[in-house]
Structure formats: C-alpha cells, structure tokens
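Justification of computing resources. Each target in the renewal requires a structure prediction run like the one illustrated here; the chain below, 783 residues long, is used simply to show the kind of job we budget for.
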Amino acid sequence: MMSKLNIFRLFALFFLLPTFLFSQKLPEQFRFSPDGRRLVIGGVDDLGLYDSATIRTIYLEFKESNYWTLLTNNYATKKDLLCKMTLDGVVYDSIGARFRGQTSYQMAGNSQKKSFDITSDIVRPDQKFMGYKNINLMNCFQDPSFLRDVFYKHQIRKQIPAAKANFTQLYINGQPWGIYQNIQQQNKDYLEEWFLSNDGANWRCDKPAGSGGGGGGMWGDGTAALNWLGVDTAKYQQNYTLKNNDTPNPWPYLVNTCGALNNTATADLPNVLPKFLDIDRTLWFLANEVAFSDDDGYIFKGKMDYFVYFEPETGRLTPLEYDGNSVMEPNTVNWSAFYNETKVNYPLMNKMLKVPAWRQRYLAHLRTIIDENLDPISGGKILDNYKLQIDSLVKADPKKLYTYANFGTEVTALKTWLTNRKNFLLTNAEVKQTAPTIEFLEMKNEAGEVWKNPKAGEKTWVTSKVVAVDGISQVNLFYAPGFVGNFTATQIFDDGQHRDGAAGDGVFGGSIPSFPALSFVRFYVEAVSANATKSASYFPKGAEHDVFIFKVEADATAGNSVTINEIMATNTKTAADQDGQFDDWIELFNTSDQPADLGGWFISDNPQNFAKWIIPAGTIVPGNGYLMVWCDEDGTQTGLHANFKLSGNGESVFIVSPDSIPVQQVDFQLQTPDKSFSRIPNGTGNFIIKDATFGFNNELVSATGEAENFSFSLKISPNPTAGLVNIETDAADEQVLQVVDLLGKTVLETEIFKSGKVDLSGQAAGVYFFKIGKSVSRVVLEK
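Resulting structure tokens:
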C-alpha cells in the first residue's frame, strides 16, 4: 500500500509539474498582466523578424544563370536551390530557396511573382534568420490589397494561435522583385511560441505530397475535418500530413479524437470530448473563421488549410489556423454565423454546436470577435496604416499580379466589408441574444485580504457582480492548476452564505479549493442568462486564453524564515570555494533574528525529485545570517556541496521541507557570467541580476574584489595573506569588523578604530570577507 507521504508527493507533483517544468521560461505568447493578476495567451507583437512596423529587405543571389529554370524544375520535388541571402544587411551563406504554394503557384501562370520558401539550415544546421529557420514570402495571389493575410493574422492572434506576419521587399540577383507578405512558417519554432513545448505532433489536414491532393469539388468530402475514418491509422495517414513530431506513435491520438468527436452521443460529449480536444480554443478557432468568412480553411473546405496539434502536456488536440489570403471576400459577407453547421462532414461545427453550453460559449466568443476583431473603426485604422506603409512599394512593384489601381480599390473594399460583415452577423437572432454583464470580479484569501494569494491548505474566495435584463440562471466559477489543461466548474451563489455580501444583491460568491504550495491556479467566471437560450458571458471576455491567476504561498512552518536570497549559476571568477574552484552557488538568508535549523530539509533543482539534496543534520542559519551552498556535484569537499549544478540558461530552485513539501521556489532565466540573481530588498524582494554580494546584504556591498566606498574606506593588506592582516579605515568613530567565511558563517568579530590587526592563522585556507558597516573586501588566506 502506498504511504500517505507518497500519495501527497504524487498529488503535489500532479498539480505542480506543469508550473515547475516550464516556469523558468514561459512561451513567448504567454504573458502576465502588469498587476500580475491575469495570464494572457496571444497578442504579443514581434520586435524581430516579423516586426509589423518594419519592412524587411531580402536579397537572393544565385550562382547559376539559369536559376529560374532550376527553381521551376525543383517545384514538384520541393528541392532547395542553394544561394546567398542578405537580410537587412546581414549575409547568410548557403541557404536554400524554392517556390512554394499550390494554387498561388499554378494560377499565377507565367508571372514571375512566385511565392518562396527560404530555409536557413540546409548546409549550416545552427544558422537561423533572426531566430527562425524559415522565411515564407507570399505573392498575394487573389489578394490585390496585399493585406488580407497580414491583417487577418494580426486580428485573430489576440485569441488563437496564428502565424506572425509583416511585409518584405525582395531582390533576386540584383533585380527588384517587389513586395511580399512575410508569413511565419508553422513549424517547431512556431509551436514553442504558443505551447509549453513543441514536443507533440503537428498535422496539416491534407493529403501527403504526391498522393493526389484534393481540390474543387473535393471540399467537404469528409476526409480531413476530424472525421471518423475507422480504427485503421493507415486511412488517416492517407489524408493527413504529419509535419512535426516528437511523440512516439502519434496517430492514435488523432484517431481517438476523431472517434470521440464523431461517435459520442451529444449528451455525453461534455464528459468525453474535453479529454481529447481543447474545447474552448476550438470554439475560438471556429468563431474567428466564421467571423472573417474564411473560404480557405476548416469551415469552408473541411480540409487542407488548417492544422491540428497534439499537445503532450494535456493530451488534447488543438486546431490551428493556417492560410488567410482568402478571407473577407465580397461574396462571403453574408455567410451564416453557423456556416456549414448542418453538414455532418464538418463535425467541429455539426457536433460541437449541438451541445447547448458549447453553442452559447461559441456565441459569446463570436460577440467578442465582432466587437473587437470586426470593429470597422479600429480595423479600418489598421488597414489604413498597412496601406500607408506599403503604398509606394506596391506602386513600384515590377512583378505584382494586380494593378496599383486594384490595390487602392481593394483596401477600400476591405474596410467596407468589415462594416457590412459586422452588421450582417448582428442580424442573427442567436447572436443578438442579450447575455449577462459581469461588472467586476474580486479575489480574496482566507483572511479576507483582497487580491492576496492564499497559503497552502487555504481556500480562495471569488466574488463577482452580475446583472442581466433577462435574469440570471446560474453563475459558474472555472478554475484549473498550472498554465494549461482543462478547467473544473463550480457554481457560485448570491445567497449571503458564500462571502458574497447580502443575499440578492447581484454579487455572487464561491471558493476555489486549496492547492499545494507554489501552485499556479487559473480562474474565470461564466454568467448564464435566464432567457430561453441560456446565453452566456465570461469574465475576462477572453477566457480561456485570458484568465485570472494566482500563486499559492507556502505555509509559515518551521524553517520558512530562511529564503533563497542570491544565486550564481555562471561563476567564473567571482567566488571560489575552499579548493579554489569557481562553482555555482546558492545563498540562503534567515529573515528572522532566531537561528533556524535546516538539518533534514532539502534543496532541489528538479520538480520530479524534491529530495534531490538533503541538508546535513546540525546545519544552522544564524538569525539574520547567511548560509552558502555550492552546487558542484562534489560532496567530498569541505563545506556544503549539493549534488547538482545550476544551469546558466535558467531553471528553478526549491527549498523543500523534511516531509517533501516544497515551501519556496525561485525561477531564473538566462544568467550573465559572474553576475548574481539577487533579492532586492535583501531577503524579501524580487530578483534582479547584479554584482554578487556573496554572504552579505544584497543592497549594500559587492564581493567581486575591492571594497565599495559607501561611507568610508576599508583597506586590507597584505592580500593574499598568510594569517596576519592589517586594517585601515577613515571612519570617524569605532566600528565593528566582521570576518565571514564562504559558508556565510562569522568566524571573527572585533572592534576597530582607525586601524588594527586581525590574525587569521587559526582559520582554514580559503576566501574570507571583511565587513565594516556598508563596506566589504575579499581576502584570500594562503597556507
């Protein structure tokens, strides 16, 4: 039988693992709000290769005089032709270039305005273009505005994963080739920006190359829209192209999702499908395609121009938007808000929207998209800014597929389309339904402190003010541990019994159960109207990609007065141990004035092994004192030497109680050599990278060599010394001198006035720190 302790360890690991494994470096598209109360995924603008305010310039240079013929001949085989590329003045040698696209290539005819795929690592595996392996230059086929794909991805990237995009000028062998859309490739670089890792499997929902891909009347044929093709994975391999994969045997994940979606009764779908599919992200995906009338994606084709990604951290599939060059077409402005919902070959629409709660969630998301993404005022300004940015370049483009006059007319048409599309959608009876208004949300800990994190073992209380013209059927609180994964729903009440104030005052209250120390917990609120359709609204409106979040604090148990105060993960010359080795180190500080016994506690850098290194019995941290731990995997040396090293690229460090409960976690990212990661204020503050203060107050001193002059000078000689040390200071009165060893232990304390001597001959050889007031100097004792 498993012990209670082991059961707790598994429980803690289950909830903490998503946070611990990835907290040191969240994906690029994950961000916390400035007040730290919300976690938002999406909408992060790129300041590098895809900076929307910058038009990149690319020069391709081919050695072969017949390069165009070679590129044409290589199209079918997707073989790269080697060339040199200069990107904004930076030269990249031995890169690969080829034509790309299907319709955009074939229908462009004899025009030289072809789309290009440019690859950095054909010859040089470590070569990247400003951090990316691929550049995709799109010729804007069927888009005289040049703007559709860039604008569409800019708008939907607020809510769902979508590629980055901007504009680029292209030159080939010195000749201008005009302006292109620069669209991010949806490879592993893209996946790691949107998911906790890129270790899953990513499929393009289209037949593999060379297998006779569909077209024309093949749309909606029920082959690649997450349709059920049976249990044989070979049938799926004929209709889906596996693009990236780090998962052993990925195909059953796709098959099982298709089975759950298509073969589960509607009443049972809410209990079954969330295990296989990210429900909320799928609804945002569908709502954005519908809102922009995407005739080159799932809701129209039912195949080809969308991806699905298997997320190993949650075990769920997520649909991913792909191509946006055909959105916002004039003939699609009156598409239904439930386009192709009645067709069984489109099961994401047909099956999911039959679930009443999911249908109302879809409608709530669609209303948000209409308000934000289809807004003709803000959207029109974005389109105008893009037009202004590229206007002269389009006019001068010698290879463009459409005229400059077409360009101007089409941009105007896009702005008109936004107005007309928004107006049309708002005529739909279900879209027009009035949903409740959630006026505010407030979180309190068990002590009733507003927006203060709970401690381990405590509930978290949430209150929310809701008003609705049709009355309120129910208000639900959704919560989930970690940064990803399914939420749990619990009803909250306006009955005066759930810390909600007076009964019937419109304020609803309820609680989130306790979670282990250091857990991150996400939450949001759903309000359901009492009207016939049970229309819903959410707070924040962007849930589940925009949610509230808190971190559970550690209990104030014995030993918690000791904090990780300073870390150095790349030590080349700052502080050497007793054997003269410059190893990683951790400084602990006792924030109380009472000694703390850490014997039997643990320090770890591994969330799967909290008991990584046990602190020896009898290890005492003095009141307001320091303890130094070397992280060098060398327990044979004198002092405290942990059995792990620190990563200069970033990781997490934990203090863990004797019963294997983590009570403190410090996350750090890429470190600067010989700079420490230090708390400011000392012992209590947030961490910054600064000069090390090994064994001393982080606010006062630098321990990198000579003393810093804060109030008076401190001169030490000789240094190095064989034992006897002369001390001089210009302090006007008597001062207390402290001599501290590398473990942070004070080995000598005496009073000094102007000058004096200290004898270290009774101490072991090594490094010591002499401190008077706010001045410190490092002394080497040699024997």
